[in-house]
Amino acid sequence: MTLTLYTNPMSRGRIARWALEEAGAEYDTVVIDYGPRAPEFLAVNPMGKVPTIVHDGVVVTECAAICAYLADVFPAAKLAPPVDARGAYYRWLFFAAGPLEQAVTSRSMGWDVGNDPQKQGMLGFGDFDRTIDALDTAVRAAGDGWLAADHFTAADLYVGAHLSWGTQFGTIPKRDSFVAFVERVQAREAAQRANALDDALMPAPAEG
Q1: How many domains does the chain have?
Q2: Do 14 and 47 share a structural domain?
Q3: Closest Cα partner for 61 from 48, 70, 52?
Q4: What is the mean pLDDT of residues 35-42?
Q5: Which of 143, 160, 175 minimizes the C-alpha distance to 92?
Q6: Are 89 and 183 found together in one domain?
Q7: CA distance 21 to 17
Q8: Which tens digits make up the pLDDT trace of 122-170?
């Protein structure tokens, strides 16, 4: 088996790295620097985006897809519930990939359609507050547990990564439920290993 992660430590590649560590996968890492993409990488992912993984010749892009793929390829890690119990798993994994990311990005870019119901209906998320409230309800309902099963899954990883980033940089409000959830997911050994590996790849600060 060959498995390669194309990433940058200052990107969403940190999510894919965490998923790989949770899966217990053995993998190689190729760091893609910011700037013009080499033809060799564009041949793998014409979008030129990281993260990208290549598993035995199979190319997978997009963080949520990578998380779902690794959960299926490494079933021993139990990153997905049984197939007949994946409703909540798929719901929250792709809620974070769709409505949550769209809502946060739109707010950050200053795109606001106001209270116009027709325009809100054209959006996949409606409005920012509704999106955050929906996720808050789900996280609070999970209590000290997890979103999609009686154990940690890739949905918790992906939602947790968005909440970790968003609450850190102020793009998602620091609601008590979100802060507690972030603390739980970041306490996982695989999350800490992944962070250490990516932090070691960060460029050294310029001397001044």
Answers
A1: 2
A2: yes
A3: 52
A4: 95
A5: 160
A6: yes
A7: 6
A8: 777 889 999 999 999 999 999 999 999 999 999 999 999 999 999 999 9
